[in-house]
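Subject: sequence -> structure tokens, single chain

Hey, anyone have a minute? Need the predicted structure for the following. Not urgent.
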Amino acid sequence: MSWAAQRRFIIMLIIGSIIVALVATVFFTTFSQAPSCTDGIQNEGETGIDCGGPCPYLCTADEQPPTVLFTTALTNAAGRTDVVASIENKNANAAAKDVPYNVTLYDAKQLLLQTVSGTLDLPPGATETVFIPGVISGKQAVANAFLTIAPSAPRWFAMAADTRILPSVLNTVQSGSPNAPSVDATLGNGSSTTLTNVQVIVLVRDAQGSVIAASRTVVPSIPAQGQATAIFTWNNAFPNAPASIEVVPVIPLP
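Reply:
Had a minute. Here:
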């Protein structure tokens, strides 16, 4: 091979190497991606596909489904039926936001009267209360109510501690008349942040622990290091003598 031919061969070899390197770079950039929690592959220490380990979401094997502690339908003298329910999150280090639920109501013959749906947050290791006013109005008598959450509905993510600022219930006072009872609850805010539009639910129980009345209100503002009053009223008498009152502030997850 002559010197000129050798030089041409070396030049073509260099040019070919450059082209191959460019093609390989473009291919790698286009068709490969860094490991992530959304790549559909179990990698980077994940205990499942895109879950566990460094990923925020829990794997199914590590989850505990929420437990519905009770669902109660409350019908007042005007024929309006409200529903109150309590849901427990047994995952001490995990939470779920905007979890969908369904509430079904049946009459004494177990005929379906109404189905309503909504969403709720489940903070870690906490019990949340749901109040749904005016589900049914009229002459339809509700015998049973059930709140259900599909096991696959919550998207559990790791949350080692509840970071919400929760007002404390300092005092509750029952007042009003037998036919128009009321409850005043004093809420305290020990933080340095003013709390606004705080949803508050009250549960009134009889001596057997059954919920006989419930209501919901919104407190516009609880000043930092201050107090505010939540007022609940009813237009009819309680069906049984009240034995205890529970006031539950409902604060959404951040």
